[in-house]
TrEMBL record:
Its main location: cytoplasm. This is Error-prone DNA polymerase. The gene is dnaE2. Its EC number is 2.7.7.7. It holds the Pfam family PHP. It comes from the Bacteria. SMART domains: POLIIIAc. It is found in: Cytoplasm. It comes from Rhizobium grahamii. Keywords: Cytoplasm, DNA damage, DNA repair, DNA replication, DNA-directed DNA polymerase, Nucleotidyltransferase, Transferase. GO terms for biological process: DNA repair; DNA replication; SOS response. GO terms for molecular function: 3'-5' exonuclease activity; DNA-directed DNA polymerase activity; nucleic acid binding.
């Protein structure tokens, strides 16, 4: 018997379905089900994934949706044709507009207005009066397109219920159809289904009650099983295929039309594009277009014309032109930087005259996919650009793509643990031991926490959390991927309001949009562009130099000398631990070296075994050999190693006879070979082509394996070059204007790897004077203040660093002191009119000390005397005398001042940094007694030396290319130290690695040239030592709070007289949040 399951809910119903489209469609294929009707609730978010699963499995997709109406009616709707599909998407857009983000409010009247061409299936419960009313209305609206579903509920009298529903349907001449109301693909997903129900309803499995599914039969069943379950309803079973045949619509029918751009009068889009290219040539080439570039431009314009992409280029050009007109720094990147047309139009910054570009990497005839131009804008001003796009194209024709927020290990453990009723402290401990980007849930953390690994709920939590990994939790908005259309966008996809005001998003993400070959414009945010623009403004005002990205002095020797020393903290792209470790080995001296540097610390070159050969050849330790002059022409700049995606494509074109389009198909198949295996069809062509052109079989095979290894992660050279431009500019400013760079970087936070404390510490190491937050001198942003009458400047920290202080209150303070500085706290309060709580935040940040000489406690005591609303009598007297007077005369009180250590703790708590002694300096005497050396001594030690060092944990990084290795940066009063933690140690000491604010490391120094690491062998959490800082001055000896490990024997070893502890002791667990006077250092984690 032929059968189609028409009521299938995927996990894109968000915490309703428990299986993916792939799982459902492949299971349907195995069971002999001919078609699946995907009907996620009030959503079409998962239909493109279902389309791809349908293509792969051969099981037909029937596009549909379950609508839960406001009166409680539930119906399944399926569009029969393209026009009906547009009515459905408009209907969903209407409901989502009413309901707001994540909700959909619709009535049956709404459905009636959009019903034409839709098949409707009522989802009833009982054959009662309510059902009769619903059937009558649906019969009137949908006529012969109305059905009622027959599904088993596994309740008493189920067969009688089905009989009564059939009888009632016949009364209103509505046909019946069998559905199984599928929520998961196989029976063993029932437990996960119950858990996602608990998560959705914010309850536990013990309290969920009748909210959970009453039976476990909501999985796919073969046609034979369905025939056995519905012996009296064979006609209703057959109607499943009837509906499939009536639903002729396929998502592949959707045709995308790019919006018509404002073009030059009398010209079409292509002619307008060519006009703008000619008009912009003098901006890039004042002396005229070089012949080789002219040839490239003609080739690109011909291909753009053939593919009808001119409107797309005009759109991006207009967006960039608007941004530049507003003084917003922007730059294109990605494969678009391969385009000479984009360079001439000012979209990208990579000159085709000095860089060997490959346009087919960007636009390819064979690939037949829309181009993708990514443009970065200043992150603080990008919203101006986004709102201009909405205003220009209209909210009915422009929307952002969505992003699918999926479960990772940490979130899965938390949500499943809550659903299964685990105690909150156990859930917190379990999730705290998970790396944020982990894709694996294991029981190691259970053993580490000394929990019972045989506990049934714990075992079930781990099992179900692993199943939940990767499942969608909700939709968010893409950072800037716009879909723009000629006609109404909601004819193609439902649109819903975003959580941000004046933004809207479609239900599909960038992968869905790409699968349907829609064009997308990426309006992205880059913090470093904000930083550079602010730096250029400061240089213009204080240094009398007019700099921008285009006129910075190139190939500056001092800048490259600084880069070679890995003195790149805070700069762009080359500030990470991995990049800093590579810089002294790469020793960049030219811009192209920097391009390679940006690209080489990537999973692709590492997995393709290209890094070490390149470095050996660069250092002259390995001979560079090119079998043919053609290969030397392609790989000469990269010393025979194909580091970039363009390198792979050029090798295929030059050495194996591929066309440009075929080479791009090779690149793309490499990017997906792990999932599709598609690269194998190119292997023979590449290897045989190289052999035919005189290369040895061994060399051809080696070349293919290299390309295969890095294809999925390789960087486009054009993208690396775009980023290298900004990297160079940021390093140039840091090298020549360290004061400006520090101020601009602080004013652009949050961004980058490092927190303000490290940025300020690095600036001080470069001789920059840093001045504290001050009620009389600080503005909102950090500013430059001239030092005496010299040309040198100090950086004054801005009020933006004061935690809890509002921008509006800071603005009122700055405005009130324009004519005269504040003389007292009372004066500041009266003249500025800010609430006393704003002054409290400034007092906690020690903002009254620099100019009013009031310590924290004195300032807070003085603020206690203020009222948020002045007494009328005193206010009138003040007005008569034209001056502020105190509300009451407070007696002089001599308060005990904070210790230096307490001040440091308060600095970190309310400013995020301190200009006093480093916290570790207070602990140095005790650390020295424990044979713990400083970070600087550790980094200067000889290769192979065993030692122990300690510091505050600043950065943890666990790159995907590092095979589980964790890189940690710690810092003490002497500077930073670089720690390497191998996977085995990470798993043993996971809680210490992920939970420590201060850590001690016992290990061996590894030195290779100028690259130094401490390879950890033992790790100890010293966060508890920070709790005693409040009681310390520099002259006070610090008592040893913990650390029996350090008292006897060699550093880090246990006392030989004691048995080693195998379980966690209560005092090993230190929770900083339970200690209000403890220094809290926020570490930054990166993947």
């Amino acid at each position: 018997m032929r059968y189609a399951e028409l009521q299938v809910t995927t996990h894109f119903s968000f915490l309703r379905g428990a299986s993916s489209a792939d799982e459902l469609f492949w299971t349907a294929k195995e069971l002999g089900i001919e078609a699946l009707g995907v009907v996620d609730r009030n959503s079409l978010a998962g239909v493109v994934r279902a389309l791809e699963a349908s293509r792969a499995s051969g099981v037909r997709l029937v596009v549909g949706c379950r609508l839960d109406l406001e009166d409680g009616t539930s119906i399944l709707v399926y569009p029969t044709d393209r026009l009906a599909y547009s009515r459905l998407t408009r209907l969903l857009t209407l409901g989502k507009g009413r309901g707001g983000k994540g909700n959909c409010i619709l009535t049956l009247d709404d459905v009636a207005r959009y019903a034409e061409g839709l098949i409707c299936v009522l989802v009833p419960d009982l054959a009662d009066e309510t059902c009769a009313v619903q059937l009558r209305k649906l019969a009137e609206i949908f006529e012969h397109r109305a059905y009622v579903s027959l599904s088993l509920r596994r309740r008493p009298n189920d067969q009688m219920r089905l009989y009564e529903l059939s009888d009632l349907a016949a009364k209103f001449r509505v046909r019946t159809v069998v559905t199984n109301d599928v929520l998961f693909h196989e029976p063993n997903r029932r437990q996960l289904q119950d858990v996602v129900t608990c998560i959705r309803n914010h309850t536990t499995i013990d309290d969920v009650g009748f909210e959970r599914e009453r039976h476990a039969d909501r999985y796919l069943k073969p046609p034979e099983e369905m025939e056995r379950l519905f012996p009296r309803h064979r006609e209703a079973l057959a109607r499943t295929m009837e509906i499939v045949e009536r639903c002729r619509f396929s998502l592949e029918e959707l045709t995308y039309q790019y919006p018509e751009e404002a073009i030059v009068p009398g010209m079409d889009a292509q002619q307008s594009l060519e006009h703008y290219v000619r008009e912009c040539i003098p901006n890039r080439y004042p002396e005229g277009l070089p012949q080789n570039v002219l040839r490239i431009v003609r080739h690109e314009l011909d291909l753009i014309k053939e593919m009808s992409y001119a409107p797309y280029f005009l759109t991006v050009f207009s967006i960039v032109r608007f941004a530049r007109s507003q003084g917003i720094l922007c730059q294109g990147r990605g494969s678009a930087a391969n385009s000479a047309v984009c360079y001439i139009l000012g979209i990208t910054s990579i000159d085709p005259e000095t860089n060997d570009l490959l346009f087919e990497r960007f636009v390819s005839r064979e690939r037949d996919e829309p181009p993708d131009i990514d443009v970065d804008f200043e992150h603080e001003r990008r919203e101006q650009v986004i709102q201009w796009i909405y205003k220009t194209y209209g909210h009915d024709k422009a929307a952002l793509c969505s992003t699918v927020t999926r479960y990772r290990a940490k979130g899965a453990i938390r949500d499943v643990g809550k659903a299964l009723g685990l105690p909150e402290d156990v859930i917190t401990a379990l999730s705290a031991g998970m790396w944020s980007w982990s894709e694996e849930v294991s029981d190691r953390n259970v053993r580490d926490l000394n929990l019972n690994p045989a506990d049934r709920r714990l075992i079930l939590t781990l099992k179900l959390a692993q199943q939940l990994m990767g499942a969608p939790r909700h939709l968010g908005q893409h950072p800037g991927g716009f879909v723009l259309t000629h006609d109404r966008l909601d004819d193609l996809v439902p649109i819903e309001p975003a959580s941000m005001v004046d933004r809207q998003v479609i239900e599909w993400d960038k992968d869905d949009v790409e699968a349907l070959k829609f064009m997308k414009v990426d309006v992205l945010a880059l913090g470093m562009l904000t930083c550079m623009n602010k730096a250029f403004d400061l240089i213009r005002v204080h240094k009398n130099e007019d700099l921008d990205l285009s006129n910075i002095r190139q190939e500056d020797s001092a800048t490259y000398a600084m880069i070679r020393k890995a003195d790149t903290l805070g700069t762009f792209q080359i500030e990470s631990r991995a990049q800093m470790a590579m810089l002294p080995r790469m020793k960049p001296r030219t811009f192209y070296d920097l391009v390679v540097q940006v690209a080489i610390v990537r999973p692709g070159p590492i997995q393709g075994d290209m890094v070490h050969p390149y470095l050996r050849r660069r250092e002259g330790k390995e001979k560079v050999e090119y079998p043919t002059p053609e290969l030397e022409a392609v790989l000469g700049k990269t010393l025979g190693v194909p580091l970039f995606q363009e390198s792979a494509m050029k090798v295929a074109m030059v050495c194996a006879g591929f066309t440009g389009g075929e080479a791009d198909q090779l690149r793309k198949s490499m990017a997906t070979f792990k999932f599709t295996g598609g690269v194998s069809r190119f292997k023979d062509k590449l290897v045989n082509g190289m052999i035919d052109n005189g290369y040895t079989a061994e060399f051809a095979e080696k070349t293919f394996s290299q390309l295969e290894g890095f294809g999925s992660y390789g960087f486009p050279e054009s993208h690396a070059a775009s980023f290298a431009l900004i990297a160079y500019a940021s390093n140039f400013v840091k090298c020549h204007f360290p004061d400006v760079f520090c101020a601009a970087l602080l004013n652009s936070q949050p961004m980058g790897f490092y927190a303000p404390a490290q940025i300020v510490g690095d600036a001080r190491n470069h001789g920059v004077e840093i001045r504290p937050v001050c009620i009389n001198h600080s503005r909102w942003d950090c500013t430059l203040e001239r030092i005496d009458s010299s040309e040198r400047y100090a950086v004054r920290l801005g009020m933006r660093l004061v935690k809890g202080l509002a921008v509006a209150d800071a603005a009122r303070i700055v405005a009130a002191r324009m004519n005269a500085q504040f003389e007292s706290i009372d004066d500041a309060w009266r003249r500025s009119g800010v609430p006393s709580k704003a002054l409290v935040q400034l007092a906690k940040a020690d903002g009254f000390l620099p100019s009013l000489k009031l310590e924290r406690r004195d300032a807070l005591w003085a603020i206690k005397a203020l009222r948020d609303e002045p007494l009328p009598l005193f206010a009138a007297a003040a007005e008569r005398q034209m001056k502020a007077i105190a509300e009451q005369q407070e007696p002089e009180v001599g308060l005990m001042q904070m210790t230096e250590g307490h001040n440091v703790v308060e600095d970190y708590g309310h400013v995020g940094l301190t200009l006093r002694q480093h916290p570790i300096a207070f602990l140095r005497k005790d650390l020295t007694d424990r044979r713990i050396v400083t970070c600087t001594e550790a980094m200067n030690a000889r290769d192979g030396r065993w030692l122990m060092t300690a510091g505050l944990v600043l950065v943890r990084q666990k790159p995907g290319s590092a095979k589980g290795v964790m890189f940690i940066t710690i810092e003490d009063e002497t500077g930073p130290a670089n720690i390497v933690v191998w996977p085995s140690l990470f798993e043993k000491r996971r809680r210490v690695v992920l939970g420590s604010s201060m850590m001690a490391i016992n290990g061996r120094v590894q030195r290779e040239g100028d690259v130094v690491h401490l390879v950890a062998q033992q790790l100890f959490d010293l966060s508890g030592d920070l709790s005693g800082l409040v009681d310390l001055d520099m002259s006070v000896r610090i008592p040893t709070g913990r650390g029996d490990e350090f008292t006897h024997g060699s550093p880090g070893s246990l006392d030989s007289r004691e048995k080693p502890r195998t379980t966690i002791q209560p005092r090993d667990i230190f929770i900083p949040d339970l200690h209000i006077d403890t220094l809290k250092v926020k570490s930054r984690n990166f993947h």
